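As a warm-up, study this chain.
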Amino acid sequence: MGKTIRHTYPAKFSIGFLILIFIISSFLSQQIFDLPFKDTNLKILLGMILAGLAVIIMILIVWEEFMFPIKVKEMNGGFLFKNHRNKLKTQLLIYCTIPAIFIFIYFNYPLNYIRFFIWALICISVPVFEKIGSGINNYNDYLFLSSDKIEYKDNEKEGSFPIKDIENIIILKDSDKILSKILLLFSNQTQLTIDLDKMELDAFLNAIMKYITSHYQGMVKEDSISE
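Now compare it with the structure written out below.
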């Protein structure tokens, strides 16, 4: 069962904003074609529309609030914080249309190659560096919090720890006061750091913080929230 912690933007806002960006980007894309603006014809207009569409697809991938609500899964008396794989698959699928658009434009239109490659590079690379690359790299990352245990997995480490063995939980934040790490201090005097900043869980940080402070009240060191 999933609990939505962040909804998508309202449809009217999303559609209006995307239409505005599409019109502006389509108009500006005329500069990638090797043709004066006054000589623009229907074929060039189609190319401009395709270039504007590539920008919209880029925005939909990078700005996830347009398409993807954030949900946490309730299971075994706790919450599983994990990016949904269907979201990444959808992002990859629609991303493939971006290089396809620019390949089509490249082989069918006279181009100003410098401007064209700059435009194409931005649309192709930004989604990879901002979302897709990180999503693939952290495909299996998750954090599970319950009244009985804390369990996690990242690219390098994983573990499951009974709450009864944990003496204190220290919340560490970065310089922007955003949750970055969870430090677990055990009753046997050992400790472990869960590096949330290395996992693909940015969208869940507020929910994670809220769960920890509300469910582990006697264990959280409020005066140690710094990094």
